[in-house]
Amino acid sequence: MLTIFLISLFGFIAINVPIGFALLITATIMMYMSGITEPSVIVQNMIRGVNSFTIMAVPFFMLAGEIMNEGGISKRIVRFASSLLGHIKGSLGYVSILTGMLFAGVSGSALADTAAVGSVLYPLMKSEGYNEERSVDLICAAGTIGPIIPPSIPFILYGVMGQVSIIKLFEAGFIPGILIGGGLGLVWWFYTRGKDVYNTDRVFRWLEVKDATKDAIWALLLPIIIMGGILTGVATPTESAVVACVYAILVSLVIYRELKFCAFPRILLAAAKSTATVFLVIGSATSVAYFISTARIPGMIASGLLSITDNVYVIILLINIILLVIGCVMDLTPALLIMTPILLPIIQSFHLDPVWFGVVITVNLCIGLLTPPVGTVLYVGCGISKKSITQLSKPMVPYILAMLAVLLLISYCPALVMLIPNLLA
Q: What share of the chain is helix, strand, coil (3-state, %, to 5)?
C-alpha cells in the first residue's frame, strides 16, 4: 500500500495534476486497493477534514491579509521599521527582515508577507543601487518567517490534523522565528560589509521614530490584539482571526482611509479563491490520511527507519532530510497535510513532543518555499523583480544555509522551542 500511495500521488503531481485532485485520486485508488467499495467514505472524510471550528481561522486570516495589503497597513509597518534601522549600513535589508517579522504577527502566510513587503521595499532597494537578486532573495527569505511567528496558518492546520494544542504551537513559534530573522541579518551583514554602495547618510532621529510609531500604531496593535487574545484565553484562534478582519477593516477604512468600498469584491474574491484551494487540499488530505492510517503506513515507515538505526538523533536527521526533499517538490500546505499523519505517530513512538515537531516540520517546509522547482515564495520574488528563477536561485543559497542552521538547532535543542510554552504552562 505504501508503494501504491507514493507512485500514485507523485505520479499525478509529476504530470501536473493539481495537488488537491492528485490527493483525491490517490485516496480513491487506496480505497479500492484496501477493499472498500463505498465512495461515500472519501466524501465523509473530506467533510470531516473541513468541518472544524478551528479550521475556520484559515479563511479569516487570509481575508485579514488581503485587507491589510489593500488598506495601507503594510507600508506603515515598513516605515516604522525604517525609522528604527534606516541609519545602519545596508539598512533596507534589515528593514525587510524586521518588517517580515512584524508582518508575520499579522497574516500568518509566507506568500502574503512576501508580496506585501516586496512590493514596497524592492523598488526602494533597487533605486538605492542594491544588488537586485540578493535583495529580492532576502525579502523572500524574510517572508518565510510568516508561517513561523504566530499567528500561523500552518500551525493551525498541523494542530487540527495532529490534534495538537494550537495555542502551544503559537507559543513555540516565537523563538525559532526570531532566530531565523537573526540568521538572515547575519548573512546580510557579511554580504554588505566593505561595500560602499550600502552606505547611508541617514542618522537616527527620535522624532522620526516618534512620527512613524504614531502613524503605524494602529497597525502595530493588531498582532498584540491577536496574540494577546489567544495567549490569555480570552479568544480562540478562530475568534481572533475574526477580530483581525474587523480590526483591519476599521483601521483601513476609518483611520487610514486607504481602503475603498469598491475594493471589497476583489478582496473577498481573492480570499475565497485561496480558501477554496486550501480547503480542497485539506479535505482530500484528510481522506488520504484515513487510508494511510488504516493501511498502517506510519508503522511501515517507522520499521524501515528502525531497520537503519534506532538512534533517535539519526532518526530526526533522516526525517528532516525526507522533509527537505518533499519541500522541494511540494508546496507547504499539502506537504504538511500529507506528512503530518505519516510522521507524527513515528515522532510520538519515540516519546518526542508533538508541539516541538510541529515547529520543526513547519520550519523545514518553509525552506522548501525558497527552493526550485516548486518554491512558491521564490516565484513571488520573480514576479516582484521580473527576474527568472535561475537568476534568483544561486544568491538564495546563503539564506537557505542560515535557515538550515536554525533548523538543526531547533531539531536537536527541543528545550529552545519549548521554552515559552513551558514558561506559560
A: 80, 0, 20
